[in-house]
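Example complex used in Figure S2.
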Amino acid sequence: MSGDVALRADAVTRRFGHFTAVSDVSMEVGHGEVVGLLGANGAGKTTLMRMLLGLLPVSDGAVTMLGGPPNRERRRRVGYVPQNLGLYRDLTLAENLDFVAETYGTAVPSLPDDLLPYAKVLVGSMPLGAQRQAAFVAALSHGPELVLLDEPTSGVDALARARLWDTIRAQSDEGVGVLVTTHYMQEAQQCDRLLLMSHGELVAQGSEADVVGDTRALSVRTDDWSATFAALNAAGVPVILDGRAVRVADTDPAQVRSILDGAGIEGTVEAVPATIEERMLVLARA
Amino acid sequence: MTFGVEDVSVTFGDTTALRDVTIEVPAGTVVAVVGGDGAGKTTLLRTLVREASPDAGRVSAPAKAELGFLPASSGSWAALTVAQNLDFAAGAYGLTGAARDERRSELLAAADLTAAKDRLASQLSGGMRRKLGFLMAIVHRPGLVVLDEPSTGVDPVSRVDLWRLIAQEAASGAAVIMSTTYLDEAERAGHLVVLDGGEVLVQGSYDEVRATFSGTVTSASTPVREAWSWRRGHDRHEYWPDDDASADREVVAPDLEDIVIALSLVRRLAGVSA
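Predicted assembly (560 residues):
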């Protein structure tokens, strides 16, 4: 391993004309650490990711990848699984892996047992869970020291997702730094540390509790969730259906009670810890 | 009015896509169908809107004019503007003139798409495009709303917004059924259905699902029985269907993720001694 961390951004900014897509972001991914990058559309995740990989020049600041500025030589030591998986759907699994081995000049990776039946199957005809597993095999075959994953487990069932996380953890246990961008809260909870971006800035980092910060939510329970939901929605507060109750993010309990009173609805209003999604919702509305 | 399917099985050639599935979709409720790729979610929804015919069982759904369906693929026309897409869908249900204009304004405002009404659908973000598809599915105020993965690939803030629109339909009295790969969305539905390999693994409200789940889930860095364990962060959770967990294990309160994985393991490992 090279350098003290696998990946670091120091006060990185990217401007497009008068628009600042990423503003003064500093972050790092340690060796053996799994870091989750969260943010709504337009928060700047993709622009940051492209700068971290050296695919887009920074306007200000510096990126250090595996001990130096990102370049072709260092990118060879990075594994990347894009959201669309980066496999050729019209080639068989074996042909895809031959291609990857040729590209990196490494030995053709051996298939895990559960992928063996698919060796001669076109990737486009494989079940999605198997395709995702295959994309991991391909991206990890050259022994990367840093791995970037874009929504690595979307679309697969809970058990398949847990199995894919075994593969990710096997990498971090070997000292590989892993950066995961995700929209998926269950995926975020698998990470060691989270980064939250909004409007181009890094607004929070740390554990789930750190990222939620002091955002509060209210749980509203009444006999009639639909009337409650309709009244709160009409009043324009950020209301979310929650089973047969509703939640309201970042709103004064007195305001919620007065909306309920106005609609002639009785019920309880209880302060509860907010979720990461609710924090993101509050940031987006700010 | 309650819609749904009863003892439905659907086969495609040698493949059984659904086996003996019974699901009720009452008016005023959001039913969330959760499962991975190949679980049978799309087949179930297509059966309900009569785009797939069951080999056995009964389907209870209203006539076409009372059905709203958002397919998993886009649901809107890329070369039309937002307003043109909505008007086209409205026209297909015979909604024209002032009534159509009023409905269009109302829907665009509710979805926060008024400012985007003259943009081509191809130029919308993923979240906005799914919202448009949803509006097109409900433009004629259907009694049964069927949504195939409305939120897949949509960012969390747009998902909350979509979820608000969907809940509003149920609050106004529609029966709503939607598929999702997000367990947290299923947790928030009034009724959730977990599909696995074409069969119902479990269904009910989240509280009911938790209450009926039996067995013990433990957490430790190293499991006793690898095959019955799964990863949660640095630790592994492990399922003991017969409540016979080793005494040294820390017992955890299972969340929906744990329950779904535990029941999936039972289905796959049935007959294998624990």
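The first strand of chain B starts at residue 2 and ends at 12. The radius of gyration of chain B is 21 Å.
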